[in-house]
Design goal:
By secondary structure, the protein is α/β, with parallel strands linked by helices. The protein has 16 helices and 13 strands. The strands form four sheets. It has a six-stranded parallel beta sheet, sandwiched between helices. A three-stranded mixed beta sheet has the order 4-6-7. Helix 1 runs antiparallel to helix 16. About 5% of the residues have low confidence.
């Protein structure tokens, strides 16, 4: 009986070895690169935190300072602005028209609105017209990029519109639907207004370049649409579309990894203060005596919300931040060529499996060695792989992290072996 238990444990261990080495994030990638999956940057376990820490150290290392060079952010904060500006979309559109005009007057080179506008969220045609007029006037001077929302299967289910039957099979081609939204390119009569999807990758470390989406209904073939960050970056620097790495990732629909700039490292202005400069009184808010708008000059200015308890807040290697700062990070990365290469998943799986087998062979050759001594060698192997990971990243731009989790599995196999000996 003990013989069969021992064999079963060993088979189970090897099966687990296939999945553990490349972590939860890579496991998701193996099965699907599905945008409908929850947005998770790391697992809640210790292995996720360790991988995140290593990722941050490796990707931020080197002689080059990682900082904001192209973007500035104007935030709509719920603790500064009246709550009605967040609940009443008509009032918010009128408020946004003022902020857009003032940002343009301050010398912004482009305005990116990290928001989308539903036709049914505001019945006041005057408010929508005021925003459209502001976009029309400003777009005569600088480009304006506006966000477009998408719905996942879970979103459709909450609205009692979940696909079923044959429609469900068709939906698998894209897994995203673009609902009806205001087309400010038409409303503003401007060719200098562009749109991009605000959808983020399930792994926040990856820059979403494009998504396949259905237009309005789940029918026909999905269309590939660029994201908000890609549209902003390529509009600002048209030569980005000619860079081989970017073109290849876009063609293969790969979302590359990137490093992150902390939220407080961006030039940030409060929308309430900008409104004050535009002589727009904000209820229960004390305006600054004199606001310096110079940080906006020559920058891609993003406008977005920063509200407590909002779903659009994300855990990143540089800390939790609102979605507008995530978008700013992606734009900075694309313009700064700070996006990294990824080896094929099967290659990483194979490398991890070979490493585990090598460790198991070494452990078998030293099976009489005390576990404490084995642990020391295990620690040395992990440090060696961290060095290899860092050097590989610095020289080639590839981020590979199979060594540490695989080494952990190897040590686990040693422990299992000891358990098996006790069972025997």
């Amino acid at each position: 009986m003990a013989k069969y238990v021992k064999a079963a444990l060993r088979v189970l261990a090897y099966v687990l070895c296939i999945f553990i080495p490349y972590g939860i994030d890579h496991s998701i990638t193996v099965f699907t690169d599905d945008p409908c999956k929850p947005r998770t940057m790391e697992s809640s376990g210790i292995e996720g935190r360790v991988e995140t820490a290593i990722y941050e150290v490796v990707t931020r290392s080197g002689f080059r300072d990682i900082r904001s060079r192209y973007t500035a952010v104007i935030t709509l904060r719920d603790y500064e602005l009246p709550l009605e500006l967040f609940s009443d979309k008509c009032k918010q559109r009128e408020f946004l028209s003022t902020i857009i005009r003032k940002a343009a007057d301050a010398g912004a080179s482009m305005i990116v609105i990290d928001k989308y506008f539903s036709p049914g969220s505001c019945k006041d045609a005057t408010a929508t017209g005021t925003l459209a007029k502001a976009i029309e006037d400003v777009s005569k001077r600088i480009p304006i990029i506006i966000g477009i929302s998408t719905l996942t299967e879970d979103d459709l289910r909450r609205q009692h519109l979940a696909p079923s039957g044959q429609q469900e099979q068709v939906f698998r081609k894209a897994c995203l639907v673009m609902p009806a939204q205001l087309d400010f390119k038409v409303l503003s009569h401007s060719d200098n207004v562009y749109t991009g999807l605000v959808r983020l990758n399930a792994d926040i470390r990856k820059i979403p370049l494009s998504w396949s989406t259905f237009q309005g209904s789940i029918a026909g073939e999905p269309q590939v649409q660029p994201t908000l960050s890609v549209m902003a970056a390529t509009t600002y620097d048209p030569q980005l579309s000619e860079r081989p790495v970017f073109v290849e990732d876009l063609r293969r629909r790969i979302h590359p990894l990137t490093s992150f700039i902390a939220e407080d490292k961006f030039p940030i202005l409060s929308a309430a203060d900008v409104a004050c400069e535009a002589a727009l009184k904000v209820l229960d808010y004390t305006c600054k005596t004199k606001l310096d708008l110079h940080p906006l000059r020559g920058k891609i200015v993003l406008i977005g919300e920063d509200t407590a308890g909002c779903a659009d807040r994300h855990s990143t290697p540089a800390g939790e931040m609102p979605g507008v700062f995530v978008q700013a990070n992606y734009i900075e990365s694309l313009l700064d060529d700070r996006y990294f290469k990824m080896i094929p998943v099967w290659t990483e799986v194979l490398m991890g499996f070979i490493w585990v087998i090598a460790l198991e062979y070494w452990f078998e050759k030293h099976k009489t060695t005390k576990l404490l001594v084995v642990s020391r060698w295990w620690l040395v192997s992990m440090l060696a792989f961290l060095v290899v990971t860092w050097v590989l990243f610095q020289l080639t731009g590839y981020f590979v992290l199979f060594g540490v989790p695989a080494a952990t599995v190897g040590l686990g196999l040693k422990c299992i072996g000891r358990i098996q000996q006790n069972v025997a």
